[in-house]
Amino acid sequence: MTIRWGIIGCGDVVWKRVAAAIQNDPHSELIALCRRNPEKLAEFCSKFGVDRGSTDANDLINAPDIDALYIATPVHLHQPQTIAAAQAGKHVLVEKPMGLSTAECDEMIAACQDADVRLGVAFYRPFYPVIQRISEIVANGTIGSVLSVSAITSTPCAMRPDEDGYWRVIPGEGGGGALMDVGSHRLELFLRMFGPIKDVKAFCGTVAVDYESENVASLVLQFESGIQGSLQCFFGTDTDQDEFAVLGTKGRLTTRPLADGSLLIERKTEREIEQHPVLANLNAPLIADFVAAILEQRQPMVTGEHGREVNRIMELAYQDAAAGR
Fold first, then answer.
1. Under a CB-based contact definition with an 8 Å cutoff, are residues 126 and 285 in contact?
2. Using CA atoms, how far apart are residues 219 and 211, in angstroms rounded to an integer?
3. What is the mean pLDDT of residues 299-310?
4. Beta strands 119-121; 146-155: pairing state
């Protein structure tokens, strides 16, 4: 069986990875694209050899020959488009962050459950071999009992109002700034690897830019297990720090940059470096898993419930940061 895909929202990530990941998946076919700008839509269709294109998302949502939709629109559109797609019988893989709020995520989950369709959120870092290796080392006790996890993430994005993607710094469209956009990926890993988070302290601000949303965010996290976490997120840096580290009673694991897959294992005086490179297309395992979830009638690796929990933690962080001001 082949899953017939449509993509709503053809921006940078779709151009770089998502469309090709769908086209290269052996059980998938990309049959339709949607973008509001007709000129850019035509460019997308030409690049990927897709004959069907529309500037209206409803054309894809209501198309009887589409089985699944990848929704990569600004965050404020995720909830209405996901609900409409579910009601039309479409499986939905929605970009992160899942919604503007936890309440929106709940509505998306309920709609997909009612329609008996799969719902996934496009967090692809759980599929990194280095993350799977870190989880294995933690589980086998090599670094003892985990005390803390930390991550630093930054991007050189310096957005102007006339650029695609500027919605990322407009609260009503993106929900927030650096935390929502790049920080959400690391929070997803924190939750997946170390379980529920019960308390959040946060500082969010705008420094050296004129954005409505934060371009600097720092979080201190308390896990239910007692483990502590820290997360720093930045927009507008020349370098991408992309550091992920786990400290245990008997050692430390560090990968930097995370996307390269190099893992430093430190235990007392021992230092070992392992290499766990990612696939050329980071989204390929995500697409493959979601397609398998449809075909095998199971939940995808990154469920709507998991995406909702990421939103809940970010919501707590913004509330705490606002109270601190």
1. no
2. 20
3. 98
4. unpaired
Cβ atoms < 10 Å from Cβ of 229: 21
Question: Closest by alpha carbon to 86, among 108, 112, 118, 56?
Answer: 112
Q: What is the pLDDT of residue 66?
A: 98
Tokens matching residue 94: 């929605």
**What confidence category does residue 325 fall into, taking pLDDT thresholds of 50, 70 and 90?**
low
Cα distance between residue 68 and residue 246, in whole Å: 37
Handedness of CA 317, 212, 311, 253 (dihedral sign): negative
Place of tokens 């090599």: 142
Q: C-alpha angle with apex 210: 11 to 203, nearest 5 degrees? A: 95
Q: Which domains does the chain have, with CATH numbers?
A: 3-123+283-301 (3.40.50.720), 125-279 (3.30.360.10)
pTM of the model: 0.96
| Residues ≥6 apart with Cβ < 8 Å to 13 | 72, 95, 283
Q: Within 13 Å, how many C-alpha atoms sit on residue 7's CB side?
A: 30
Q: How far apart are CA 186 and CA 229, in angstroms?
A: 11
Report the C-alpha gap between 295 and 195 in whole angstroms.
28
Q: How far apart are CA 247 and CA 257, in angstroms?
A: 17
d(CA 282, CA 212): 30
Are 152 and 242 contacting, i.e. CB atoms less than 8 angstroms apart? yes
Do residues 2 and 28 make contact, with C-beta atoms less than 8 angstroms apart?
yes
Higher-pLDDT residue of 166 and 51 is 51
Q: What is the mean pLDDT of the chain?
A: 96
Burial code of 32-69, b = ≥16 C-beta within 10 A, e = fewer?
Answer: bbbbeeeeebeebbeebebebbbeebebbbebeebbbb
What distance in Å separates the CA atoms of residue 153 and residue 59, rounded to the nearest whole number? 37
* pLDDT per residue as tens digits for the range 232-263: 999 988 887 899 999 999 999 999 999 899 99
Q: What's the pLDDT tens digit per position in 189-212?
A: 999 999 999 999 999 999 988 899
